[in-house]
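ok trying again, last paste got cut off:
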Amino acid sequence: MSKKYSNEVEVARSYYNSEDADNFYYHVWGGEDLHLGIYKTPDEDIYTASRRTIDQMASKAKKIDENTRIIDLGGGFAGSARHLAKKYGCHVAVLNLSEAENERGRKMNKEQGLEDLIDVVDGSFDDIPFDDATFDIVWSEDAILHSNDREKVVEEAARVLKPGGEFIFTDPMQTDNCDEQVLQPVYDRINLSSLGSPAFYRKACKKYGFQEQSFQEMADQLSTHYNRVLQETEKNEDRLDGIVSKEYIENMKKGLRHWVKGGREGNLTWGIFHFQKQA
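nice, full thing came through this time. structure:
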C-alpha cells in the first residue's frame, strides 16, 4: 500500500513521476542533476555548472570524509550523492519522492559502483524515515520549495542531525520584500501559493536550534540557470520529439521564462545557506 501524502506533495510526486518530466530532466538538465548551477559564463554547459554548485556547497562543511553520514533531501537522480561519494568516500542517503527518479538513481549508482555508499529511499522530507541524531550533514538542493510545510522540513532536518551537525541547502526563493502578486505565474507553475524567502529560512532555522554560519546569495545565477535550460530546451526540441510531449515542452518554456523574468526583476533569489545545529 502506497504512503499517503498531502495534496501539494502528491502533486509534486505525480509531476516528477510523469514520463515527460522524467525524460525532460534527464535529457536536458545534464543527466545527473535537477538543481541550479553556478555559471562562470552565461553559455556554460549545465552539467559543469551543476557540479560547481555541489563543490561550492561542500566547501561550506567543516569536514566531509569516509566517516561522514549525509542525507540529501529531494535528491532527484542522486547525482549530488554520487559526486560526494566519489570525491570524499562519504555515505549518503538520498530521500526522494519520485519513484521514477529513484529508479534512475539506483541504476546509475550501480553502473558507477557506488551502491555501497549510497542508499536511495522513497519518501517525503516533511516526514524523514530515519531516527533522531542520525546524520552529520543534512543537504538539499532546490527541493524544499515543493513542500507545503517548509517549517516542518526544517524541524525534521534538525531532528535527524547530530548535535553540532550542519544543514547546507539551496532553494529558489522570493526576495524578502517581494510583492507576491507578481510571482503568481511562478506559483501556478509549481502548484503552490508561495515560495520560501531568506527571512523565512532564517526564522525557521533559529526556531529549531540552528545557528546561521553563512548565506552566499547568488541571485543572478537563478536567472542565468533557467535561461540556460530554456536555451537547451529550444535547441533540442527536435531531438526531444517522441521522448517528451510537445505540450510539456511548451509549458516548460513558458514556465522557464517566468523564472527568468522573476530573477531579472529582483523578485526571486537563490544561494547557499549554511546552518549548524547547536551542540
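cool. The chain has one domain: 7-277. Residues 246-264 form the longest helix (19 residues).
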